[in-house]
Fold this protein.
Amino acid sequence: MSGTNSFLAQPGRRAALPIVVLLLLGFIAPLLAVVGFSFMPPRTFGLWHEPTLENYEKIFTDNTYVSLLWSLGLASATVVLLALICYPVAYGLVRVFGRWSTALTLLFTIPLIVSENIRLYGWVLFFIKGGVLPGTLKALFGVEMGDFLFTPAAVLFGMVYVYLPFMLFPMTLGIAMVPNQMREAARDLGATRWQVFREVELPLSTPGLMIGSLLTFVLAVGAIAEAKVLGGQRIIPITHDIEIAFTYAQNWPLGAALAVLLMLVVSVLVLIVLRRFDLDQILGKR
Amino acid sequence: MFDSNLTRRNFMKTSASVAATLAASQMGPFSRPAFAARDKELNILCWEGYNSAQVLDPFRSSKGATVKAESLTNDPTMINRLRAGEINVWDLINVNNPWARKVMLPEKLIKPLDRAKFEPYFEKMLPQFKPPYKWAMDDSGKELLGMAQRFGPYSFVVNTDKISRATAEDQGWDLFNDPKLAGRFGILESDDWNVFGICCIAGFNPYKPHSAEEVAKFEETAKRVLKNKKVVGDIATMNQALVSGEIDCHLTGGSYSVSPARADGHLNLRGITPKKGPLAGGKGGIAWIEITSVVNNPESSPLAEAFLEYVQDPVVAHTVAFAEGTFNPVTQMGNPECFKLFSKEQLDAIQWDSLEEEMAGSVEYDIVPDYDKLLDIWNAAKKS
């Protein structure tokens, strides 16, 4: 009791109590509930059964790993593609486009206010047989477009499209953090344009690249709509497995175990990355 | 050590932190003081349509009540919500025929209706729903468990410009065994119904326990059908793919799924009921009938029964048939006052021309005894 009193003696701790309670209720408790469900017998709906590892055994004995690999693979590919696509765009926004940068930034931002599903269905109409692209190609040039919709490539396209702003904006900030004087000094000392990029701009803008990559990866690994809408379920990501377990299969414990597995895998990967890069340093706190 | 009688709901009552979080996340807008009077409040868990403003607004204004409806697109999820503790949230539940008498009543998730008050409405319904209508009654035939309204045949859909209606009806489920169809068909993402469909394509009745040979046959068929499919998607995707020519047909589906495209003028797209098949009596088609029941909510709203009466009105029943989403026949079409409200285009959209023969050629949707096992195989096959 006295320990509690002394803990609360500091005003800062007392002031932090509401947020601690909020975090416990809103973040920790649901996580604990999910973890608890993952140890309940399959197809039960209570948290008060004898705990079991059956759900985890099932994950490792059936072909769930295929879904996990698809999710991790697509998320990684999305991050790599977005890094390649966004760097020159971000560079342009910071260094090249000048007063047009604001307008271009708005163009990248506006789609975010439209529902992701609606945007993806828009792409379906664009790529579907007789749709905007195949129809135009056929009408103007007599060219029959091959199958693109309902393929893994379409899923990747959708993910790159949806998560582009989440890579672009942190990267833009990262490039903006590179002092112009550093670039000029490098040039004055005889560095080539490539050397300036490789030895000054890229290392100094790495914080933006890292934050963008982390953000994009975490979001992309939980993506489901792209595989459903653009991929026609040609591939099944792990999030789809989780959804099926909680709905048609009536198997909450299996769904919870899959969710815990996904959280663990993503957390480990993120921690590995963060161990190599100091987030505080990246964010400029020290 | 553990009390196996404790349900999640009981657990929520005794565990403050978890309970508060789960209640906040799952009940959301429906959270309320525990013992508040509920005579001006109604919560409906339903398939799409009943949650539309067209259906709910007149009831809201006439009763001065707050009516909230949440729509889901599969029965198991809705039943789960009640099982998992939301029995004290909902007042009405609208699911397909077998669940009321086979699951929800035995589990005390719903309660019987006042038979004298509601059975007269069945007298005005289409002939096959006359009282005592099997799926609206309990096993003993004494208790009325809910009201029937929307229904329809549901097997598969074809583009009749590519595959004639006669060919599809004669070939039936075998159509999907034809290697020539590879890459030309889609699969609607209703996995519970896909289990039925795969059983039928494999040549056996889904609604009975299955032998090891049949389970093996199911797995082989599931893998083959999934390998040959062009796309798996929702109703909008299937209709768009049919209209654009991406696919020539899809399983599973029927007047329910294809009605939006037919209402848009694509009358060449048609739900098909096979003329023969492996179902009881040699039938080839499967049909669904929605039954709306009163949830066994300890603080049930008195508006629950009032709403059930409200949707029996001919004008409201017609609105329900053509509420947003999909369009469907309603049992109240047996009442001339209701039937006359349907235009020719609306009757065409719901395949009224063949509805009677399609329903006669179908068995009514039932619960698959080994559904869990078959669904697991189906889901694993998706990734193979």
User: Anything to note?
Assistant: The interface with chain B takes residues 24-26, 29-30, 32-33, 43, 45-50, 62-64, 66-67, 121, 124-125, 128-131, 149-150, 228-229, 232-234, 236, 241, 244, 246-252 of chain A (CB under 8 Å).
